[in-house]
Amino acid sequence: MNLLTGKLGEIAARGKADRIVFISDIVSGTLKDFITFWLSEMGSSEHIIYEPFSYEPLRKAHQLVFGMDGIPSYRLDQADFLVSFGAGFLETWLSNVEYARQFAAFRTPHEKGKNPFFFVGPRMSLTAVNSDQWIATAPGDEYLVAAGMLKFLVDAPLIQNIPSKQRDAVKAFTSGLSMEAITGRTGIPEETLRLMALQFSRAERPLALAEGLSFSIPNATETAVAANLLCSVHPGSRKAIDFQNPSIHGTVDSAARMKEISEKMKHGEVDLLLIYNANPVFSLPSSWDFQKSLKRIPFIVSFSSAMDETTESAHLILPAHTPLESWGDYSPRPGITGILQPVMGPVFDSRHVGDILLAAGKKIKGPNRFPTENFYQILRNSWQVQGEKKAPGTPPEGFWQETLQQGGTWEPESREPAISLPVPSKFSPKPSKVPDLGSKDFHFTAFPTIQYYDGRGANRPWLQEMPDPIAQITWGSWVEIHPLKARELGIQKGDIVVIRSPHGSMEVPAFPLSTVPLNTLAVPIGQGHTHYGRFAVAEYGNPMELLPDRIDKTSKGMFRPAFKVTLEKKERHVPVAHTDGSLFQHDRDIARSISIEEYRQGVADQAEPHLYLPLPEGYDPKKDFYPPHDHVDYRWSMVIDLDRCIGCGACVVACYAENNVAIVGRDQILKGREMSWLRIQRYFDPDWGTARFLPMPCMHCDNAPCESVCPVYAPHHGKEGLNNQVYNRCIGTRFCAQNCPYKVRRFNWFTFTRPEPLNWQLNPDVTVRQKGVMEKCSFCVQRIIEAKLRAKDEGRKVRDGEFTTACAQTCPTEAIVFGNLMDPDSRVSRLIKEHRTYQVLEHLNTKPAVFYLKKLTQEPFKS
């Protein structure tokens, strides 16, 4: 601390306080205000809010088309037609958990079927596989698809009475683009574009989204402008775009601003750099030479709680509290503010970043300018002042306590947000031409993953162990290449390849997969750390090494030209740790689907499914050798709606956290020894050109094959239908795993330990298993017991919905429902009567207690 205050005093004495720069990730509320105040007291105003994904093209497009600066909140649940031009809103785009919940509402079946959804982009992402049709393009050609739709909407015209200003803006954008040129460049039939435009025009509230990440694809600004123009020509689209409550992502500084600061560093114009929760050395393109710029700074202070690539260059590290140790507040958009409370004391010798700045401020400027004792007091004072405005008449302390109790404040949103209809700017696109390819050339795209985002999740073992939803790969990076192209080049899974661009190169294992077009390569972002922590994977791949250092003059984001890359196979091979057993179902009908027409007919006929219920009425003396089990009051069961499941894997990570599931690492996964109690099975569907997901926990069968083969009765059928695993009885014969047709039992080959302080996160309600013991999903029996004890104290039975399993609680789309099958009014009892219901491998007569609702499919252009 003395070093920091000494440097601050020295810089102030030289009159160079304007050379102090503070770089942080997104901060809001009290902390942001305090950082601004602290910098002003020190004589600086340079607070750079840095995020690798800053959406400059999206922000510029909103300014050009809607006259609004910022990023709105989108209301997918208000739309009835959706087309996404690369926006992965089910993965990492803006507010993915919120949008996943809205998407589930958007796709809820109604009398006309399901609301249509199209995805346009160079990779079959998690969002793409949840669409009715993935329309594959080369990276940078997405805007051409939108332009084709615009031409049909305006030139045909499919939408009548378009205001002349909007019509002129569209014509300015599409001038010079003939339909022949669009279809010739993209390879998409003209009829497909016409039908997409037709559905867009017939919808009441259509919505077009664009990714807006300039480093990910070329022509991001053109694509975002085209998507916004689609929304501008249809008056109903404005009901799904909420500029009254803009996203906090609109407050992030642009890449141009970051480039300006980087140049100042390079020229010795920064004397003190303070970095908090930001890692630009890793997340910026290598061509920026940001690390070299850092070496020109006399003194760098990092408040990071981990030794990342940027912190490695710091002269002084003052580790700040993690969010679990901190007080604070956060406002993702106007009207919603959450209170951050510490759930534990500091693990190490760290402080709140506000306390560090406060102590430095007191020493430099004295207690008169910084009178509060700590940041917690600053936070309380701030909220007490807010209370005078938000709740006049309420005592300030009372308002603070009430806010603390409910976790924050929020204001109700209007059901149908609307934006005014401004005059769009006549934007003439200047796209980067997608280059023609030679025999060994490829288009290239880099994509953020749901596990690692921009790399900040790479040191979290739960996320490393979680398989990628599409590739099913863990603990490493990879490049996706089309299987036909891989076969042509003699490349097999795990072969090390070198990808070279005009700006750099990288080595990465190949993974042939039909998730990219024939001449496109896709690499995930987030791996390839050189400094971050023991769990971050260093080998193979940070795709930022391939990107240029230029800035787009229009959007002020990174300029990502449409360059081509070359691929060279090396004489090395590494095994790729992935968990999928098969790419396809091979007609086993495990993850089932039903067409909208069949669904409507079933509803009309009031058809009920034929099920092998895990109840006495599910037994047939002609088929069943053993008598049914007697269940007392409860028969716990689960229903999983495959039409709502998006395959995100949140339930898998929640199960790891709740049930102390061991992290085994890459080597054990390569041997097929993963320990996850719940897995998401992904099957590609060649008929539909997409994929199906099926969460697979223990089935808790009433006729469980595992119970009859154990010589020591470790698998035990409880009075409430649970297939319990008695750990003290288990001697590790593994007969139960061999006899389980669902393959959901896991064997502990070792006693897996958790290095301190990770052992602190163990759930004290759940036994930690040892070497030689079999384990599996318990339906979160510890939660069942807790609910029963609470009900017993109150002299009643457990109510439906009073508690649920960790997977059901975490699912953002509410695809999982848990409850008592013996309660005829419970949600599970009602859901299993729907004619979509089925059981996996029901012909084996295991009588599983996990039921599935078939996924609903529809022909994308049926209407």
TrEMBL record:
Region (Disordered): 407-434
Key words, A-Z: 4Fe-4S, Iron, Iron-sulfur, Metal-binding
Pfam families for the chain: Fer4_7, Molybdopterin, Molydop_binding
Alphabetized SUPFAM superfamilies for the sequence: 4Fe-4S ferredoxins, ADC-like, Formate dehydrogenase/DMSO reductase, domains 1-3
Domain called 4Fe-4S ferredoxin-type: residue spans: 636-666, 689-720
GO molecular function: 4 iron, 4 sulfur cluster binding; metal ion binding; molybdopterin cofactor binding; oxidoreductase activity
Positions with biased composition (Low complexity): 422-434
Tagged with keyword Calcium: no
Protein's UniProt name: Fe-S-cluster-containing hydrogenase
Phylogenetic placement of the source organism: Bacteria, Pseudomonadati, Thermodesulfobacteriota, Syntrophobacteria, Syntrophobacterales
